[in-house]
Amino acid sequence: xxxxxxxxxxxxxxxxxxxxxxxxxxxxxxxxxxxxxxxxxxxxxxxxxxxxxxxxxxxxxxxxxxxxxxxxxxxxxxxxxxxxxxxxxxxxxxxxxxxxxxxxxxxxxxxxxxxxxxxxxxxxxxxxxxxxxxxxxxxxxxxxxxxxxxxxxxxxxxxxxxxxxxxxxxxxxxxxxxxxxxxxxxxxxxxxxxxxxxxxxxxxxxxxxxxxxxxxxxxxxxxxxxxxxxxxxxxxxxxxxxxxxxxxxxxxxxxxxxxxxxxxxxxxxxxxxxxxxxxxxxxxxxxxxxxxxxxxxxxxxxxxxxxxxxxxxxxxxxxxxxxxxxxxxxxxxxxxxxxxxxxxxxxxxxxxxxxxxxxxxxxxxxxxxxxxxxxxxxxxxxxxxxxxxxxxxxxxxxxxxxxxxxxxxxxxxxxxxxxxxxxxxxxxxxxxxxxxxxxxxxxxxxxxxxxxxxxxxxxxxxxxxxxxxxxxxxxxxxxxxxxxxxxxxxxxx
Length: 493
Ligand code: NAD
Description:
alpha/beta, globular
């Protein structure tokens, strides 16, 4: 049974139930966590309020030193963290080793930029005044993460939030809380008590955090449906929100693309983490001239993807995260087939890969813009292909979406690349190299894909307020204070 983490030490839930955490590949129960209560959330927030009162006064250079220590601890614990991530989430271990390293790099990045980053001095409007701005932490940040990159998406919140002087209460996904608990126990335990806290559980625990009056900001990554609910609740008490939500990203292969790059690139961008990536290539547009060759090669490529338990080094693709997740993908594919889509590869569960939620990497053609696999987010390994006559039609269709998370294209033609970049609303636009992040560059969505940015300087500013300081270093009574009769001559007659 894993404990919550409150006030710098493990804590039992006051009255919470118990939730089994299941390995989605083997369906074995791997551990138990608490389903926290509203009382536990109140305890964690109270601890964070205390932690923040101390932490905000700690000099940035000392905060930086402690965050670098977190990065060192994460790298030292990569074997255990990556194994836990694999067992609870299903991703291949190699992807989870990468995830742990990206977390460490993110802590190193924010340790440095929070130390260097500064306010500004502003030209004054009168003599003997000084005007400047300083950046202050917001207070307590509620951090709610999804299941697909449990540590990374939590780190994108807590590294900048803590670096800026805030305290955090984390709520990992109810499906994948174990690596987050391990991270706080092994890699954040050297922080002053109360700076980092963890509660476990599902929607009700998240809601208690969103509604708590001492939580200054909710940093959320997850579905657009839940994000909308959180934004509405937070608005009722004017709490800040940072929302990283769903996406139905377009991917265009133009006719000049090198198929030796584009075919494996699209396959990776769609089937990575069994298609459970917010920025997966979910709507694929192929220009007619290369469509047949591309599809033939993609179908061949898909046959080389090895399914299995993520702890097996041969595995390229693990299971979907839950029975609910695989059921939803099956439903979306069967509705697309009923409306005329053709299955060229996959299209079914793969029992031979293991007892868990394995679904075959699937290629669907004759898909139309109205099909559920195009207008709903498909969080599974389904490559939905639309063939278009030329570059202009590809860009026009790709740009047609209510979402705006990412987009990726394959071309060396500057005109097409820049036209697509201009027309498609997306927080990240990848050309010939999909789904790569950079700690120093902002990440986030437009439209229904969210608001606010993580990473980069914007990711730090999400957790800071700007205070303007106005100083008059020669105190004197001003001519414009009361009484106004002294200014009567200024009024037009
Ligand atoms: P989800 O929205 O179901 O859950 C996300 C988190 O919210 C979980 O911790 C969950 O317990 C919590 N939650 C659920 N209901 C809540 C409520 N009413 N109040 C507060 N918290 C609540 O998402 P998921 O299935 O874990 O993840 C998949 C989704 O996340 C996809 O839509 C994907 O596109 C999106 N996602 C977005 C990004 C991004 O950066 N934009 C990254 C990864 C995943």
